[in-house]
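Board notes (copied after class):
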Amino acid sequence: IGMMLRGCWKAGHGVRLFCCAVALALVSGCGGGGVDLGPPIEITGTITLDGQPLPNVEVIFATTEEGVPLAGRRFVAKTGPDGGYKIESIFANTYAVSVMPQDSGADPNAEPDPDAPAETPPNPLSKYGSESELSATVAEGKSTFDFELVSKPVK
């Protein structure tokens, strides 16, 4: 690389820039240098709560596996009116799955509604948020992941 740079230095300014870029690429490496995530996979599924479709929630597939690039760690979809969701490009891996309510869009600085109930009912999705025990192993040929959530403990 040193001889190449000395030869380029004697050439014109444009050639010098090109040679420096090539040398830098050779020294640092051009690729991601990380884990090969494999081909992207499309997955679909349905989220139900107590047997009913759960619309307008976020379904989050996340992995904390070492060495997985940031782009391959977290995938988010929103459910439709039928509780269905689709992630068009996810990679084979095991994921923790969370189901979170969508942002209500309410202004957090707005005055409270005097007609609103004094106590907010418990959120039935709280156990499926960041502490969720749901998981999914995505692989070629395994592309449907339905989750049947329950709001009350099973007796």
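Comment from the instructor: The radius of gyration is 25 Å. Strands lie at 41-49, 52-53, 57-62, 74-78, 84-90, 93-101, 134-138, 147-149.
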